[in-house]
Amino acid sequence: AMMDELQMTHSQKRYLMDYVKRGDALPLQRFPPSSKQPVPASFTAACQPHKLPARPLLRPAKVCQAGDAYTREKFQPQPTRDLEKEKRRLQNILATGKDEVEDEVEQVLIQKKEEETAEPDQFEELINEIQERREFLAEMEALGQGRKYQGIVLTEISQKLREMEIIDKKRSEEMRKIMTKAFPVGNKSNL
């Protein structure tokens, strides 16, 4: 578009495009004279390098103040405390010598410890793990990676099934022992 604005001849355009194709910097001197048109004066001014000022230019104060640099953010108060709750808390501290919040925290901690100590059933965990591996294998097959993971996942599933069989045998033996203690009369083989 600039070449068209400067009304360059075809040979001048080709001369510049040769520089661009080679990746060289554009020439600073005038083009070779063409027989048809003289090179316009505006073109020579456009080809000369721009001179930078000796020191950076400073913006006037009015321009700076017109921007957002001098505007303050509007104050937005934070939510206030519940004074009634604070009064009840202080009354409780003065009456009992303890903070009810601390008691609640202790109760929550005790409940969490009880939940952690209650072991989830190993059999259920193994069932969940097998289900996760089946879902993973289905996802990989949907992505076209099923063959890559099929051997690994099926091996893991068979290991989990073996663990489930061991747990089942232990439980059945425990149940037999409990049943023989509870019902000592009769033939043990019938159980």
From TrEMBL:
Keyword Cell cycle (UniProt): no
Pfam families: UPF0193 (PF05250)
Ranges in coiled-coil conformation: 80-118
This protein's UniProt keywords: Coiled coil
Keyword Metal-binding: no
Protein origin, superkingdom: Eukaryota
Protein's name in the database: EVG1 protein
